[in-house]
Amino acid sequence: MVRRRAARARAVLTPPTGPDGPEGRFTSPLRGERAAARLGLALAASFGAAFATGLISHFMQHPPGWAQWPSRPVNLYRVTQGVHVIGGLATLPLLAAKLWTVYPRLLRRPPVRSAADAGYRAVVFLLVGGALFQAVTGVLNISYWYAFPFPFTTAHYWTSYVLIGALLVHAAREWPAARRAVMAGPGDAVDRRGFLLTVAGASGAVALATAGEAFPPLARLAVLAPRRPGTGPQGVPVNTSAAGAGVLAAARDPAWRLTVTGRVRREVVLSLDDLRALPARTARLPIACVEGWSADADWEGVRLRDVLRLAGVDDDARVRVESLQTWGDYRASRVAPAHWRDPLTLLALRLNGEPLHPDHGFPCRLIAPNRPGVLQTKWVHRLVVE
Ligand SMILES: Nc1nc2c(c(=O)[nH]1)N[C@H]1C(S)=C(S)[C@@H](COP(=O)(O)O)O[C@H]1N2
Ligand SMILES: [Mo]
Q: Which of 234, 291, 330, when mutated, tests ligand 1's pocket best, judged by the most ligand atoms within 8 Å of its CB?
């Protein structure tokens, strides 16, 4: 049985034309099974890591009712999303090398040999198409180039299931042949080793040129990163500016108030001076954007839980934090109990020793530990207890 499966896998992998010898185009060391298998293993590992960290990001932003994310460790999301984006970018050279290695097989004639073969070719089509789709949409998204007509997060999320499903089928199917290829003697390995080292070097170079967007010691190398720590007002990058969000006038208006409403024992309305008069707390916390960049900062403000308790809220309440923005996906976010009860969760009034810059959320913005950047709502003006 095992032997028959191996034979079948071999039939799929064996070139349809040309000799089986080293001079055949398909069996050159670089286009051979061994290079393809090694690259496949590396890709499987990085797709697995991207899938796991992607699910973390998705479910942090869309928490199922029965689960709650912890607010600690403070840097958890920063790390998982850094792995997702920087790891994803470092995967691109691997993907390109793998496709280069196997494309004669993808384009072979005749394309389909039997019904089972047709089914498997469809899986390979989903695998290659899914991988390219994730790569292209991911790169465009972190480059702020929204060239596609569909919502990025929804498409990237659902495609990941298709991709991982196809990868599992492909891995199960190719495993025996790949194992044989990797276990076989060294053969003419010199070229192949050089090729694989080049690909690994390209992956490492991409990682080095981007990792500084989340890891400050490498910031100076981050020439490919769209955002770098230390840049932007008050030393912290900005995604949406106050002017871009259309809130500049409302944020500067002296009539600005913070209202705490909803399921509260008494509605509370606070001016900026009222907030400043509450006990001031500090926290060193990162902004960790879903696009992979992150930056540590010193925040000062009042604890969200202190403000909520002024209004009288139940311990298991959820809170909707609303900004002055009247449009846009990030104009509000929900805070679950684990986060609002955390003493590090602040309504920040100051950043790195100065009053918040308008682009960072003046007069008041949410900052909480272990939370995606999209949920760190700026220009807050209403807390609605649900
Ligand atoms: N109201 C509002 N809050 C927002 C956003 C927004 O567009 N509108 N962008 C979010 C995103 S995507 C990130 S990464 C952080 C960035 O915060 P910063 O601009 O202060 O660095 O703010 C978040 N808060
Ligand atoms: Mo973000």
A: 330
Identify whether the C-beta of residue 187 lies closer than 8 Å to the C-beta of residue 29: yes
| Pocket flag, ligand 1, residue 379 (CB < 6 Å) | yes
Find where tokens 């298998």 sit: 37
CB of 348 within 8 A of CB of 300? yes
With contact defined as beta carbons under 8 Å apart, do 273 and 254 qualify?
Answer: no
Q: What's CA 327's distance to the chain center, in Å?
A: 24
297 backbone dihedrals φ, ψ, rounded to 5°: -155, 160
End-to-end Cα spacing for the chain: 60
Question: Is 379 strand, coil or helix?
Answer: coil
Residue from 77, 241, 374 whose mutation best tests the ligand 1 pocket (most atoms within 8 A of CB): 374
Q: What is the pLDDT of residue 24?
A: 46
Query: Ligand 1 centroid vs 109 CA: distance in angstroms?
Result: 51
Q: Can you tell me which residue has the tokens 């590992």?
A: 45
pLDDT tens for 233-277 read 999 999 999 999 999 999 999 999 999 999 999 999 999 999 999
Q: Is the dihedral of CA 51, 210, 99, 190 positive or negative?
A: negative
What gap in Å lies between CA 132 and CA 88, rounded to an integer? 12
What is the reported pTM? 0.91
Rounded CA-CA distance 17/25 in Å is: 9
Cβ(242) – ligand 1 distance below 6 Å: no
* pLDDT per residue as tens digits for the range 109-165: 999 999 999 999 999 999 999 999 999 999 999 998 888 899 999 999 999 999 999
